[in-house]
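Protein modeling request. Please complete all fields; requests missing the sequence field cannot be processed.
Requester role: graduate student
Desired output: 3D structure, C-alpha cell encoding
Chains: 1
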Amino acid sequence: MRIAIVTDSTAYLNKKEYEEDNIYFVPLSVIFKDEVFKEEVDITPEYFFEKVRQVKQLPTSSQPTVGDLTKLYQSLEEEYDAIISIHLSSRISGTFQNVYSVANSMNNINVYPYDSEMAAAGQAFLVKAAAKLAKEKRTVNEIIEKLDEIKKETEIYFIVDDLTNLIKGGRLSRTAGGVATALKIKPVLTFKGGEIVVWDKIRTKKKALKKIETLLEESTKEKDYPIEATVVHSYSKEEALVFKGKMESKFPEVRFNFSFLGPVVGVHIGEGAIGMSWTMDINRL
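Delivered output (285 residues):
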C-alpha cells in the first residue's frame, strides 16, 4: 500500500525533509489586519517577527481552509492509496477538526486524521517517523500504533519571554499565566493532554534552561532506547545555538536537531522563546 504523509506548517520541517521524506503539508495563516500570509509559503519567520515589531496591533492566526485541505488530498489520489494526516493539537487549534471533516468527505482515497496533541518539534517527530514507516511499506494500522507509542514517549518543554499572547489567545489559562506574569518568573511550559500548561515556575531564563537540561539528563538515564532531541527557538537563533552546543557536549549519546517556531506559533508565544523536545530515536532502534 502506498501511504502519503501529510502535516501542517506548524511541524516546521525544512525543505530537505519535505522533499527527501515525501512529506506534504498544508499551511496555516497569519493575519495582519487585511493582509493574510500563508505560513511557509508567503512569509518567513524573519519577516514575520520584524513586522510584529513595527505594528501596533498584534496579528492573529487561522487554520487551513477546507479548500486547501481538499485540494491537497485530491492531488494525492492518483499516486497513493491512503493518507495519514498528522496535525497540531486539537486542543489549541481548529485545524484537526477541519482535517477530520474533509477526510470524511473524500470519496476516492481514505484519509486517516491523527492528532499529535503537540506542535512544532513534538509534532515533527511523529511526522518524520510516519514517513519512515511508510517508506518501509508498513500498514496504516502499524504506523498509527507506532505513532501512539512515540507520542507517549515524547517530552516537550519551552520557555516564553512574555505570556500575554498565550493568555489572550486562550492557549494558557489566565490563572496559571497570571500568576507567572505577576511574579515576573520564567515558567517552563509543556503539553499535557494536548493543552499548554505550566510545568514549573522558575525565576530566570538561565535557570529554566538548566531545568530542561536536568529533565533530559533524567531521560537519558531512565530510558532503554536511544534518544533524539530538537532545540527550537522563535527568532532567538544565536541563543538557541549556544544552548544546543552545550547539550551536544553534555549528551553525546543523544542525536540533536535544530528547528524554529514560525509565524503561527510566534503569534502566541512571541519572540525570544527557546525549547527542547525529545523522544525515542526511531532511526536507531
